[in-house]
């Protein structure tokens, strides 16, 4: 049982409908309904009365409402008593698809550590769908994910763009393709240079599938996340396609182990790296500080 579930029930009661509560909480109605169903299953009580015209608080829910309000008020008192110091010293859980881990995330966490020495930051590598789910459930505080042009952004999440760039081919400086100003789709399909692709579920896997129009190279590797992909390139296993902001400034690129070339064929797709957090509920000061730090550092990232 989570305090957010109780707050949702209180909102439905106060506003008189599931729809209005979802609008106020900046949640989709299905997401709010599913959260309430999980609480109902745990309590063994139908808290909402569901009709074709909508859902409202049930008679059983009204009987339990004084207890729900009592718990919410008790939690508010606890938060007030703990104060900012408790909020600062908590752990922050950050989910990331790893696209900009080295160029952006690591410098940001290093700077954050200097001003919040007692706050732990747990960085969890995950796919975008997993990060979204964890943010909505409250198990992640912040999430770093990518979007292609035209992708929908979940309305229940506050989304701030950090970086915007274009897909490029990441390769070794001694690769035959490095002698060319651009790399074409035909080059990526050429068996002389194996293609390292992101595993299904990652945005760049979707982009590659679209770029190659269903065609497949004669041999390729599949890996989890950009960081492993760059390491495999550095070791001479092949080439990969990543957003330019994932390669530029990476220690492997600065050290000369990897480089990049633009895609040919008029490819103009843009990729955005964004930071997300849940809209509803209070945001601890340390989470706000780390969020602002990412925004500020992204503004200075070349």
Mind explaining what this structure looks like?
- With 302 residues, the chain is of the alpha/beta class.
- The chain has helices spanning 3-15, 18-25, 29-43, 59-88, 101-115, 128-137, 185-189, 203-211, 226-234, 244-247, 251-254, 285-300, and strands spanning 48-51, 54-57, 91-96, 120-125, 142-148, 157-165, 167-171, 195-198, 220-223, 239-243, 259-262, 271-278.
- The protein contains twelve helices and twelve strands.
- Strand 1 and strand 2 (54-57) form a beta hairpin.
Helix and strand topology:
Elements (H helix, E strand, L loop, with lengths): L2 H13 L2 H8 L3 H15 L4 E4 L2 E4 L1 H30 L2 E6 L4 H15 L4 E6 L2 H10 L4 E7 L8 E9 L1 E5 L13 H5 L5 E4 L4 H9 L8 E4 L2 H9 L4 E5 H4 L3 H4 L4 E4 L8 E8 L6 H16 L2
Parallel strand pairs: 3-4, 3-5, 8-9, 8-10
Antiparallel strand pairs: 1-2, 5-12, 6-12, 7-10, 7-11
Helix pairs in contact: 1-2, 1-3, 1-4, 5-12
Number of strands: 12
Distance between the termini: 44 Å
Low-confidence stretches: none
Report the sheet with the most strands, covering strand number, pairing sense and barrel closure: 5 strands, mixed
Q: Give the class from helix and strand content and strand pairing.
A: alpha/beta
| Oligomer kind | single chain
Portion in strands: 15-25%
Query: What's the Cα radius of gyration?
Result: 23 Å
| H/E topology pattern | HHHEEHEHEHEEEHEHEHEHHEEH
Query: Treating each run of at least 4 consecutive H or I residues as one helix, how many helices?
Result: 12
Helix content: 40-55%
Global geometry: elongated
Largest sheet, order of strands side by side? Answer: 4-3-5-12-6
| Average pLDDT | 86
């Amino acid at each position: 049982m989570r305090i957010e579930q109780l707050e949702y029930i209180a909102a439905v009661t106060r506003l008189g409908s599931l729809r209005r509560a979802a609008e106020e909480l900046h949640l989709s109605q299905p997401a709010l309904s599913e959260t309430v169903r999980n609480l109902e299953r745990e309590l063994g009580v139908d808290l909402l009365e569901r009709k074709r015209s909508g859902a409202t608080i049930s008679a059983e829910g009204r009987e339990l409402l004084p207890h729900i309000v009592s718990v919410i008020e008790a939690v508010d008192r606890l938060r007030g008593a703990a104060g900012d110091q408790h909020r600062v010293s908590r752990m922050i859980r950050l989910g990331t698809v790893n696209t900009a881990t080295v160029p952006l995330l690591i410098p940001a966490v290093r700077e954050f550590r200097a001003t919040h020495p007692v706050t732990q930051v747990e960085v969890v590598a995950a796919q975008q769908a997993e990060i979204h789910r964890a943010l909505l459930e409250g198990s992640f505080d912040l999430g770093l994910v990518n979007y292609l042009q035209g992708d929908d952004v979940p309305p229940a999440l506050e989304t701030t763009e950090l970086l915007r760039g274009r897909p490029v081919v990441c390769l070794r400086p001694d690769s035959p393709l490095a002698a060319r100003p651009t790399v074409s789709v035909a080059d990526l399909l050429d068996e002389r240079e194996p293609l390292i692709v992101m595993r299904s579920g990652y945005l760049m896997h979707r982009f590659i599938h679209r770029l190659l129009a269903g065609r497949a190279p004669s041999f390729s590797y599949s890996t989890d996340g950009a960081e492993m992909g760059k390491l495999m390139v550095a070791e001479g296993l092949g080439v990969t396609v990543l957003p330019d902001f994932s390669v530029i400034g990476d220690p492997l690129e600065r050290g000369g182990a990897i480089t990049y070339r633009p895609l040919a064929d008029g490819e103009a797709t843009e990729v955005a790296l964004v930071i997300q957090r849940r809209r509803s509920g209070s945001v601890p000061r340390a989470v706000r500080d780390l969020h602002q730090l990412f925004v500020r550092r992204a503004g200075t990232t070349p």
